[in-house]
Design a protein that fits this description.
alpha/beta; 25 strands; Rossmann fold; six-stranded mixed sheet; 218 residues; 2 domains; UDP N-Acetylglucosamine Acyltransferase, domain 1; globular; eight-stranded mixed sheet
């Protein structure tokens, strides 16, 4: 029986990460099978040439070992699916592109997706199921929580702490913190695309603009 790998989610995020996952499988486990899982599918089909099925069908496939990358941008959905996978004793799969650079002393928990041209600087700690999309970087001494999501080209400078479930929009720039006073983006906060964050963002807050300010909802 061969091992089985899957990309969970066959929409934008999943289809973008599949080629990276495929190249990783080719490199590390050439005999393994690779499929898409998507619960929007009622019957088995194909997406971009890969078999695609819902989670119940995936669970029925016999395999010596199953590993799944959750490729869905919404961190809360990633958490819900991660909990189901763990309960079913299926491994959370870490996928990173060949172009990714990871410096010394980096610790990344299971289930992350590092897209092409992502750089992780020295002595960074990253939690479960982190998504760093195209061209994003995390500079030295940052601490990133669980289920954090970076859209493309996020610039996360040194000594920044980003708490669980925060979402950082495309092109956002976060100012470097200090070793004894890191800049903190609170739990579940949302940083809008292109924002320039110069100070702490409270848990659950939504900030936009340059310099980033609280978005006042009408
Ligand atoms: N999805 C799923 N199981 C869930 C929640 C979502 O399979 O419990 C799938 C959903 O059917 C969709 C994909 O995940 O195909 C999410 O796609 P969306 O376009 O919302 O987001 P993105 O691909 O940008 O993360």
């Amino acid at each position: 029986m061969s091992s089985l790998f899957a990309v969970y989610g066959a929409s934008g995020c999943g289809r973008s990460l599949m080629p990276i996952a495929a190249s990783q499988v080719k490199r590390t486990a050439p005999d393994a099978k690779l499929v898409f899982i998507d619960d929007g599918l009622t019957s088995e089909s194909e997406v971009n040439g890969y078999p695609a099925m819902n989670y119940d069908s995936f669970k029925c496939i016999p395999a010596s070992q199953k590993s799944v990358l959750i490729a869905i941008a919404n961190g809360s959905i990633r958490q819900k699916i991660a909990e189901a996978l763990i309960a079913d004793k299926i491994a959370l799969w870490h996928v990173q592109d060949d172009s990714t650079i990871i410096m010394d002393g980096v610790n990344i928990a299971e289930g992350s997706a590092l897209s092409p041209f992502v750089t992780i600087g020295a002595n960074v700690t990253i939690g479960k199921c982190f998504h760093a999309n195209l061209y994003s970087y995390v500079e030295h001494d940052c601490v990133i929580g669980d289920f954090v999501t970076f859209a493309p080209r996020v610039s996360c400078n040194g000594n920044i702490h980003i708490e669980d479930h925060a979402y950082i929009g495309a092109g956002a720039v976060i100012k470097q913190g200090l070793p004894d006073k890191p800049l903190v983006i609170g739990k579940g906060a949302i940083v809008g695309m292109g924002a320039v964050v110069t100070k702490d963002v409270a848990a659950g807050a939504v900030v936009v603009g340059n310099p980033a300010r609280l978005l006042i909802k009408e």
